[in-house]
Amino acid sequence: MFTGIVEETGVVEGVRTTAKAIELTVRAKVCGRGLKIGDSLAVNGCCLTVVKMASRQSGKSIRLDLLKETWQRTNLQFARAGSLVNLERSLRVGSRLGGHFVTGHIDGTGKITRWERAGQDHVLEISAPPEVMRYVVFKGSITVDGISLTVAAARTRSFRVWIIPHTYEVTALRERAVGDAVNLEADILGKYVEQFTSGRRK
C-alpha cells in the first residue's frame, strides 16, 4: 500500500529482457535507505518487488523484475537508460497518509493531451480509457505516474488536474510532454462502492 506522495525521482540505469522476466534497474538515493530485498517499491505508481541491490557512490542500484503483463499495461515499456521515474516506498503502519490509499496496481495508461503552464502552476489534461474514467469524479483522487492528485475536471473521455510548482519540480512530470503515456490508478474506494452497490462480483 502507498500514498501517492512521491519521495524522489529515480534514474533508470537499464532495462533487460531475460527468459524469466524483464529486468528494470533504477538508481535511487532516498528510497534506497532501509530498503531490503523482497520489499515493495512503487515505480511510476506500479508496485514492484526489489530482487537485487548494490551500493553505488550516488546511491543504491535497485533491480526489479516485471512480468510481461505489467510491462504491457504500464508506461515502463517506454523507459530507457537515463529516464526519470517516480519512486515511493510502501506505507508503514502509523505513518501519515499524505495523499490517498494507493495499491500500486495500474488500471491502465492515459495519454497527455494538454500540458502547459498557467501562472505559477501547470495544467495537465489526460485522455483515459473507459475502465478508468468510470471511477473519475470531480474533486476525487486519482494517481498519475504514482502521484496522488485531485481531479479538477472530469469529462467523458478525459480529466484535468492542476500541478503545483513543488510537484512539478520533485517528480518526473517535468520530463513529460503532450502525447506521452502515464500510468493511471483510479481511487480504490470507487471500485468497492461500485461492487457493493451493483451486487456483482468480478
Protein model, in words:
There is one protein chain. The chain is globular. The protein has 202 residues and is mainly β. The chain has a six-stranded antiparallel β-barrel with strand order 1-2-5-4-3-6. A six-stranded antiparallel β-barrel has the order 7-8-11-10-9-12. It has four helices and twelve strands. The longest helix is centred in the C-terminal third of the chain and has 11 residues, at 188-198. It has helices at residues 68-73, 130-133, 165-170, 188-198, and strands at 8-17, 22-28, 40-43, 46-56, 59-66, 84-89, 108-118, 121-127, 141-144, 147-154, 158-163, 181-186. Helix content is 13%, strand content 44%.
Question: What's the structural blueprint in terms of helices and strands?
Answer:
Elements: E1 8-17, E2 22-28, E3 40-43, E4 46-56, E5 59-66, H1 68-73, E6 84-89, E7 108-118, E8 121-127, H2 130-133, E9 141-144, E10 147-154, E11 158-163, H3 165-170, E12 181-186, H4 188-198
Antiparallel strand pairs: 1-2, 1-6, 2-5, 3-4, 3-6, 4-5, 7-8, 7-12, 8-11, 9-10, 9-12, 10-11
